Amino acid sequence: MQRDTMPMLSTTHLSLFPTAPTLCNDDPGPALLLMACSGSKLDQNTSAIDLYRGVMYQSYWAHLRSDAAPYVLILSARHGFLQPDTEIAPYDQRMTRQRADQMVRDLSSYLRPEAWPMRVGSVMLAGGAEYRRVMRAALARQYGPALPVLKETCGGIGMQRSQLGAFLDGLKPAFRNQSGQHANGTPIFRAYGRIQAGAIATLRYRAAPALPARQAFVLSVFNGSRGPTADVEVEEIVRGRAKIYRRWVSVADPQPFMGEPA
Fold first, then answer.
1. Distance between CA atoms of 102 and 104, rounded to whole angstroms?
2. pLDDT at 11
3. If I label 243, which of 25, 139, 157, 222 is the partner at 20 to 30 A Cα–Cα?
4. Alpha carbons 3 and 73: distance in angstroms, whole number
């Protein structure tokens, strides 16, 4: 891991970084996974991806690969579409036919357009029939005629788990837009899956979950000795002062940053 000290910046400097990259027209976009929330939940406030503990989420974690992670949005029967790192409290609300009808009629209240990728490759809808009905309506609203062919789970819960696992297993690593190379010849890219150079990310070290999340600025991505790696500038507090350090981290650690959780 690099530990080069960068010039000290205050926290306000990070807000000046661009919040989204400019994608090239030939960028195929990341795979998109839309997941229904689950009845089984933790009993404390936490990120959406950690709150839900249903069997579909067990399959998601079992098959998720850091070298081919999809862009994920979660459809909550209460909150609408959520990014995985959005912090929410436990709740009890199911996606009935009446609730799905309401969400489709008032889709703009639940869509959160800024949370969706600008373009997508393959798409999987994982959830029951009413969840998938809302998901299809949201995709049509967000992407219109550019919407790719969809895959959807169906059948019993065992079959749905298998279909979700097969989708995740079938994703291919996606380094895109080569921008140079390291001194040893390793190619450097501007994008890998949903991680984009020039964007701010929320950095959570999976190997050290007790550490608080922090903002990071993505410089580039490359295939390192331990797998896909992001070269980032991250803010650290050292003796009460904010400094920017350069780090190499697993691409599984940063998540796209869309502002403070609602």
1. 6
2. 34
3. 222
4. 33
